[in-house]
């Protein structure tokens, strides 16, 4: 058996980071019901602060690893966000898909892929802030382009209805703020944030596509919305929420009682769908009302 070659300091560091990356991404975590972030420490389960108190040498090495890990994850997700917008701008420019559909697909995919990306961040208690940095940067990008005289046309083509820069300061900006709130205040050990993104991105996004195509029967109290759109929002929002909860349960971040979870998610989806159907879009954007209603319903339903 060939002897292991001595690693250079850089290679050694890279191996340590790579090992930590796969450990953090794939190792189940057992979070306490109060959803305080915790992970398997040296002696059993402990929070990162408890581990630092017990093992200062490990804590400094772990902190460095976590920092490098989270910086790498942030760069990767930021790059993914930029590439997604660029992809749909290219598809729109080459008339592969119409601009309106392009925008809705960006609406659906951005938030859901963001929610799916959370496990690549470290087990550190600060990881959620690194993840939230991605919607923060995109929010600043929207503000700069929405206010600027020479806005970035890629962003405008992929994200606005009518190609006006000021549109970036409404729906899209509220959208990225909702992603930031979900990451910072709920993160991957709470069903509340991920269900809010499932309903805003998956549910509300598909409502537009299905409603425009099949929405001949309008909602009596809101002729601008249709039954087909709302039913689509409820169904897709429900299944995407269940999918995200299963995804995070299978990775060990959540422990759901599946006998009651389906009913709870159905109630949350119904509340979000009813709020979205209301004739209040001129007063409050869907990207504010839908996540807020979902967060309230989910927090009352799940308790965390
Ligand atoms: C088109 C968008 C919102 C408009 O909503 P509405 O008016 O149709 O109701 C979405 C805007 C997306 C934003 C420009 C980019 C957000 C990227 C996200 C923070 C991170 C995605 C990462 C992932 C890995 C692709
Ligand atoms: N429940 C719904 C939601 C949207 N829609 C259709 O999708 C279009 C855009 O919906 P919206 O104003 O909520 O669009 P966003 O604010 O989500 O971008 C509506 O004008 C309807 O044609 C629907 O038919 N039923």
UniProtKB/TrEMBL annotation:
What InterPro entries would the database entry show? Answer: Phytol/farnesol_kinase (IPR039606)
Q: What is its EC number?
A: 2.7.1.182
Its pathway is:
Cofactor biosynthesis; tocopherol biosynthesis
Q: Does the keyword Chloroplast apply?
A: yes
Q: How does it sit in the membrane?
A: Multi-pass membrane protein
Indicate whether rRNA-binding appears among the record's keywords.
Answer: no
Annotated GO molecular function terms are: phytol kinase activity
Q: What is its main location?
A: plastid
**Catalyzed reactions per annotation:** phytol + CTP = phytyl phosphate + CDP + H(+)
Which locations, inside or outside the cell, does it occupy? Answer: Plastid, Chloroplast membrane
Q: Which family does it belong to?
A: Belongs to the polyprenol kinase family.
Write the protein's name. phytol kinase
């Amino acid at each position: 058996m060939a002897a292991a070659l001595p690693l250079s300091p850089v290679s050694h560091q890279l191996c340590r980071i790579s090992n930590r990356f796969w450990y953090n991404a794939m190792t189940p975590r057992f979070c306490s019901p109060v959803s305080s972030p915790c992970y398997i420490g040296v002696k059993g389960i402990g929070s990162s602060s408890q581990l630092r108190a017990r093992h200062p040498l490990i804590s400094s090495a772990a902190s460095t690893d976590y920092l490098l890990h989270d910086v790498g994850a942030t760069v990767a997700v930021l790059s993914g966000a930029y590439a997604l917008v660029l992809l749909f701008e290219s598809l729109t420019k080459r008339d592969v898909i119409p601009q309106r559909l392009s925008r809705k697909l960006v609406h659906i995919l951005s938030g859901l892929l963001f929610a799916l990306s959370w496990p690549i961040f470290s087990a550190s208690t600060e990881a959620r802030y690194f993840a939230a940095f991605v919607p923060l940067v995109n929010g600043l990008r929207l503000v700069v382009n929405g206010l600027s005289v020479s806005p970035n046309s890629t962003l405008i083509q992929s994200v606005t209805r009518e190609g006006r820069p000021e549109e970036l300061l409404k729906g899209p900006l509220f959208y990225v703020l909702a992603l930031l709130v979900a990451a910072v205040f709920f993160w991957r050990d709470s069903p509340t944030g991920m269900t809010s993104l499932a309903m805003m991105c998956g549910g509300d996004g598909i409502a537009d596509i299905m409603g425009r195509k099949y929405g001949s029967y309008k909602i009596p109290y809101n002729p601008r919305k249709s039954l087909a759109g709302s039913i689509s929002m409820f169904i897709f929002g429900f299944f995407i929420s269940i999918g995200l909860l299963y995804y995070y349960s299978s990775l060990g971040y959540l422990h759901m009682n599946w006998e009651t979870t389906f009913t709870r998610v159905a109630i949350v989806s119904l509340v979000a769908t009813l709020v979205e159907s209301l004739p209040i879009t001129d007063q409050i954007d869907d990207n504010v009302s839908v996540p807020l209603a979902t967060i309230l319903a989910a927090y009352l339903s799940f308790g965390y």
